[in-house]
Amino acid sequence: MKRKRFSVEQITGILKQAELGTPVQELCRRHGVSEQSFYRWKKVYGSMEPSEARELKQLREENTKLKRLVADLSLDKAMLQDVPSKKILKPVKKREMVDYLMHRYGVGNRQACRCVLLHRSMYYYRSRMDPLFALRQRVRELAHARVRFGYRRIYMLLQREGWDVRKSRFYRVYCEEDLGLRRKRPWRHVSAVHRTQRAPAGSANEVWGMDFVHDELADGRKIRTLTVIDLFTRECLAIEVGLSLRAEHVVAAMERLKYSRGLPQRIASDNGSEFAGGQMDLWAYTHHVKMDFSRRGKPTDNAIVESFNGKFREECLNAHWFESIEDAKQKIDAWRWDYNENRPHRSLEGLTPREYAMKVSS
Question: In Å, what is the CA distance from 56 to each residue of 51, 67, 121, 240?
């Protein structure tokens, strides 16, 4: 049976009923109390009015609080006298002093922390060194240096640096650091009509691919870049930059590459006038180079070049402001060197284009 609690007014009311002649047993039965409790109430509140009884209870509660406060202050004074007079500043030393006071005086950590001016959260805090701290730091550095690299290519860079870490652990760190790239929504293929697949390049310098990429300078002037890559080694052979590139500029770029690289058997490109015009056709006929044009409106026929152009735009063009045409040439050429020398490719077994070219040539 749940024990009842009576207020001071209720107790004095019960005692008044007994004074008016109601039998004690009847009152105890009616209110569910024992006779022992009734006579204990009568001993304490027998001759008091309800207001006087209420004041007495309040005085007793205040007296109890004052006694407890005096005891706590006396204990605090004793503990403060036990604390060294020299000021303690380091949290580690304060934790040690809190443990000593708790053991010596039998107080809780709240009171002990208050005496040494230490926040309780600091008392519970324990320094924990993240075992993956170095890996997290290096992953963040690579992700910030290579803004458009995904987790696979960053993992390749870590492996090349000698990190011995499982791919699952690396991917967990990559996700925890919120470094994932936002993917573009792909086009919906309503109908897919494929022509006969081109024979893929089987060796270096067999098939080249070229295309134009457009951008602008900081002052708003438009620029064009001609990208030329080897479809087998993925090397970027040249990136020509100019305010207006026409067919004669394409022919001049091919002539320069002829002396530094040699000539390919086939060049893959789209149907732009610079590639399908008479000047480029005459040059290709003279040098016995076959021009392989993609279907109109089908950039996937030249997928490797389009993929390279996307990386070129994300990692170079969108990452820099070009103050002048000379500044654009300098920054684009620096990116081309970094692409050939330092950028690993999944399709090249994690090697850079230059390393893969040296591997297949040896």
Answer: 9, 16, 41, 99
By the 8 A CB rule, do 158 and 165 touch? yes
Tell me how far apart the alpha carbons of residues 178 and 46 are, in angstroms, rounded to a whole number: 74
Residue 74 φ then ψ, to 5°: -65, -40
Confidence at residue 178, expressed as pLDDT on a 0 to 100 scale: 81
**pTM across the whole model:** 0.57
To which H or E segment does residue 144 belong?
helix 133-145
Highest-confidence segment of 91-105, 271-285, 325-339: 325-339
CA distance 229 to 226: 10
Whether 227 and 309 have beta carbons less than 8 Å apart is answered as: yes
Return the pLDDT at 1.
38
20 CB-contact burial (10 Å; exposed 0-12 / middle 13-18 / buried 19+): exposed
Residue 181, amino acid: L
Q: How many other C-beta atoms are found inside a 10 Å radius of the C-beta of residue 84? A: 8
CB 146 within 8 A of CB 315: yes
- State the Cα angle at 258 between 264 and 248, rounded to 5°: 100
Closest CA to 226 of 244, 204, 200: 244
Other beta carbons within 10 angstroms of residue 31's beta carbon come to 16
How far is residue 87's CA from residue 328's CA, in Å, rounded to a whole number? 62
pLDDT tens across 86-134, in order?
A: 677 788 888 888 888 888 888 888 888 888 888 888 888 877 777 888 9
Report how far residue 347's alpha carbon sits from residue 361's, in angstroms, rounded to the nearest whole number.
17
**CA-to-CA distance for 240 and 325, rounded, in angstroms?**
11
Q: What is the C-alpha separation between 156 and 352, in angstroms, rounded?
A: 10
